[in-house]
Amino acid sequence: MEKSLHYPAGRDGQRAFEKKPRRGADMVALYTVWYNFVRQHKTLRCSPAMAAGLSATLWSMEDVVKLNDAQATKPARPNVYKTRNSN
Question: pLDDT tens-digit profile of 38-63?
Fold first, then answer.
């Protein structure tokens, strides 16, 4: 068996998996939102979410970013800052 068929790798030689599972899950979630809410289906002439009655309008990627920013937690500022050594 050829090595390229046994060990699938991309053009740059990287394997087809993420080292951090969270990043891969986030990519799948973003693709799912795009597919169901942003993309217009050719035969339905609307998004799958509109066909299912989940949304009344076709979303844009700006809407997805706004939704993501609203759900994201703001980073907390530290209570105590380290002092610099002034030599």
Answer: 999 998 899 999 999 999 999 999 99
Residues 24 and 40: their CA atoms lie apart, in Å, by 24
Residue 9 backbone phi and psi in degrees, to 5: -140, 155
Residue appearing with tokens 């998996």: 17
- Between CA 32 and CA 86 the distance in angstroms is 52
* 18-40 residue pLDDT tens: 677 777 788 888 999 999 999 99
* Measured distance CA(75)–CA(77) in Å, rounded: 6
Owner of token pair 């500022």: 77
